[in-house]
Design brief:
- The complex is a heterodimer of chains A (229) and B (441).
- Chain A is built from 7 helices and 10 strands.
- Chain A is globular, with a radius of gyration of 18 Å.
- In chain A, 41% of the residues are buried.
- In chain A, helix 6 links the parallel strand 7 and strand 8.
- Chain A is α/β, with parallel strands linked by helices and 229 residues long.
- The longest helix of chain A has 18 residues.
- Chain B has 441 residues and is an alpha+beta fold.
- Helices cover 51% and strands 18% of the residues of chain B.
- In chain B, helix 1 crosses helix 10, helix 2 runs antiparallel to helix 8 and helix 8 packs across helix 10.
- The two termini of chain B are 25 Å apart.
- The chains are: A alpha/beta (229), B alpha+beta (441).
- Chains A and B meet through helix 2 and helix 3 of A and helix 9, helix 10 and helix 12 of B.
- Bound molecules: adenosine-5'-diphosphate (ADP) and magnesium ion (MG).
- Magnesium ion (MG) binds next to helix 1 of chain A.
């Protein structure tokens, strides 16, 4: 489902003349199968987020190949990649990334709107998805009126609403207390079990790392052999 | 993303900053209103002028004042035959003015008359009607203008009875009797040598009264005679048009004024051109219309151009508003892009927002323009009437807004707003997802 081959990345810093390049990823290769939950662990600054951003298309690829759901996405234009992202990948961020001026309902509806779904179909799908993450009755709350755990559920619902094949999560529990963290992990496990969604989860939390079928460890931009739980 | 949803999105966004949007729409509306009202003056005056011209009796006429030729013999019967042979000429109206102002007498009333000779047959054929009576058939029969009675003065009457304090004719002093079938005695003078004059009275009969002149302010006090009578006068004076100068041995007759009556405006223009090419001095109001239209087209374009500058100034506001909107919404745009909104969608949303501002401004501006235009058309004549004591002719329009002007204003407004909104929209598509998610923008 996710196949990464010889992916390298370096950041350029400084102005012209005094440029320095920081190599962040060094020929990373790995493969994740459909329906797997894989966690990505490693010290802060080891390049985990950078890897995720490359897979997401948020960063322009420099060298290497990324194949998602059998499609080589490395050659895609910005427009094509955004369309691909909309239909295939869901995102869960550490700080939720909800649109503050929209209600929970509107935030979850957003991907459906972008995908051109009709209003009636949207209504049903949005309510179903909000129910799936246990947010019935909170449809008309704005993010500022929800707890951290509830906000993260809204963001999961948004990631879920277009039935993605892959969900990418960068420190999804980073802003949650341990109790809501447990709830979220249970939700992830349930979604994986029922919908067979493939998860790639970045974390430095041992409890989170424990829910993965497999764990990849990053060190200084390189993958150390993964361990199977 | 569906267009309907884009519209919904834009409306929601616009609601978030009503004051700013309102001010921008206001500026655009003012620019549009300025353009429309400015240009509407050219449209209004042009329309009024054209209407005025088209109402003229002479609109289907080509007037001929002479001919470019070596002998300077003027328009002769030979030319008339040529005119009559032309296509689209319904009638050839000829006229010569008597070169003296003879004394005329009806009963006890007398006047100095303005006498014109015409071809009655051609007039009748050309469709000119009389107010009363009939067209003359014999040489000694004449018709008079509808205001002819106002020139007649009772012989031997007191000046005070005729003129009021302002030296205007008193209405009571006009000839009150009927004109048709009255005998009118016209006295023609002739010069025998520089110091000796002689006169002869011609008894004539009035058989008809002409129609009111086309314009309200015009007076028709003339006496219209036939060419046969003019010939009798000339035979007596031995001069062209019965002029009061010593007789001329080689006198040849020529027509003074010729008017060719055509059936429609387009033929008139073509006819005018043909005649000018043939060396005649031809003039037609219709040909003049072309010039007038050209002049007004230039004026309209110029005013629209000046108005466009106002809209461009207003568009600076749109540029500002949209740039601020993009900056404010950068985090939201980042989230939308991360989820999978394409750059095209983002761009469309922002372009839609700026065109909404433009359309809203144009709509309000148009409504206001119609209001101003109405006020000007009603108010200006009132002001002119009270302040300058000038009356504006009825139906006079200072300002008129045809649909084409509204269309032009809308198009200009839309283009200008799209252009001014395109940079902010482009800026929105270039927002970097990662920077936006980190709230760095
Ligand atoms: N936009 C950037 N410009 C320059 N350096 C960056 C940028 N983003 C990340 N880095 C650097 O790349 C390295 C890896 O960062 P990151 O992928 O965020 O690590 P992790 O997510 O594992 O903590 C860090 O040293 C960080 O400083
Ligand atoms: Mg990170």
């Amino acid at each position: 489902m996710i196949e990464v081959k010889d992916l390298s990345h370096q950041f350029e810093l400084g102005k012209k003349g005094k440029k320095t390049t920081i190599p962040v990823l060094k020929t990373v290769s790995f493969m994740i199968n459909k329906g797997e939950i894989v966690t990505l662990v490693g010290r802060s600054g080891s390049g985990k987020s950078t890897l995720l951003h490359l897979i997401s298309g948020f960063l322009p690829r420099q060298t290497g190949t990324i194949i998602l759901n059998g499609q080589d996405v490395t050659g895609l234009t910005e427009t094509a990649f955004s369309q691909f992202r909309l239909g295939t990948i869901g995102f869960i961020f550490q700080n939720f990334q909800l649109i503050q001026s929209m209600t929970a309902y509107q935030n979850v509806e957003l991907p459906l709107i972008l995908n051109g779904v009709s209003e009636t179909a949207r209504h049903v799908q949005t309510l179903n998805t909000l129910a799936k993450v246990g947010l019935e009755g909170f449809e008309h709350h704005y993010p500022s009126e929800l707890s951290g755990g509830q906000q993260q559920r809204v963001s999961v619902a948004r990631a879920l609403v277009l039935n993605p094949l892959i969900i990418l999560a960068d420190e999804p529990t980073g802003s949650l207390d341990s109790e809501t963290e447990r709830d979220l992990l249970d939700l992830i496990l349930e979604l994986n079990a029922t919908l067979h969604i493939t998860f790639l989860i970045i974390t430095h939390d041992e409890e989170v790392a424990a829910i993965g079928h497999r764990s990849l460890a990053m060190h200084d931009g390189q993958l150390i052999d993964g361990e199977v739980n | 993303m569906r267009f309907k949803d884009q519209v919904y999105f834009v409306r929601e966004n616009m609601k978030k900053n009503k004051m700013r949007i309102f001010m921008t729409v206001l500026a655009t509306a003012m620019g549009t209103a300025f353009l429309i009202v400015l240009a509407s003056v050219a449209f209004g005056l042009h329309g009024t002028l054209i209407k005025e011209i088209l109402q003229q009796e002479t609109i289907n006429q080509v007037n001929i004042y002479g001919k470019e030729d070596a002998e300077g013999s003027g328009i002769t019967d030979q030319d008339i035959t040529y005119f009559e042979s032309l296509d689209n000429v319904r009638a050839v109206k000829k006229s010569n003015r008597l070169d003296q102002a003879p004394q005329v007498v009806i009963n006890d009333y007398a006047a100095t008359a303005d006498v014109v000779a015409v071809d009655f047959e051609a007039l009748e054929k050309g469709g000119t009607t009389l107010q009363s009576g009939r067209y003359p058939r014999a040489a000694n029969e004449v018709v008079v203008g509808v205001d002819f009675d106002q020139t007649l003065v009772e012989i031997g009457a007191d000046d005070n009875a005729i003129y009021d304090e302002e030296n205007e004719r008193r209405a009571t002093s006009y000839y009150q009797g009927k004109l048709v079938d009255q005998t009118l005695t016209m006295t023609i003078e002739r010069q025998i040598d520089p110091d000796t004059f002689e006169e002869k009275a011609f008894p004539l009969t009035i058989v008809g009264v002409k129609e009111e002149p086309a314009e309200e302010w015009q007076r028709d006090q003339s006496v219209t005679i036939s060419y046969a009578l003019l010939q009798q006068f000339s035979d007596y004076t031995q001069t062209q048009n019965a002029a009061l100068y010593p007789p001329d041995e080689n006198m040849t007759f020529s027509y003074q004024e010729i008017a060719l009556q055509s059936d429609n405006l387009e033929h008139v223009t073509a006819l005018s051109e043909t005649l000018n090419d043939e060396g005649y001095f031809a003039y037609s109001v219709a040909a003049e219309l072309k010039q007038i239209n050209l002049l007004f087209t230039i004026a309209k374009a110029g005013l629209v151009f000046i108005g466009t500058i106002a809209i461009i100034i207003a568009s600076i506001g749109i540029f500002n508003t949209m740039t601020m909107a993009v900056t404010e919404r950068a985090p939201d745009i980042g989230i939308m892009k991360a989820i999978g909104a394409s750059p095209k969608t983002i761009k469309q949303i922002f372009l839609l927002e700026s065109s909404f501002i433009g359309i809203l401004g144009a709509l309000i501006g148009t409504a206001v323009s119609y209001l101003i235009s109405m006020l000007v058309n009603v108010g200006l004549p009132l002001i002119l009437g009270t302040v300058f004591e000038d009356t504006v002719p009825e139906g006079f329009k200072f300002s008129s807004i045809p649909p084409s002007l509204v269309l032009i204003a809308f198009l200009i407004c839309l283009i200008v707003t799209l252009v001014s909104g395109s940079r902010p929209a482009k800026k929105a598509t270039r927002i970097d997802v990662l920077s936006a998610l980190r709230r760095e923008l």
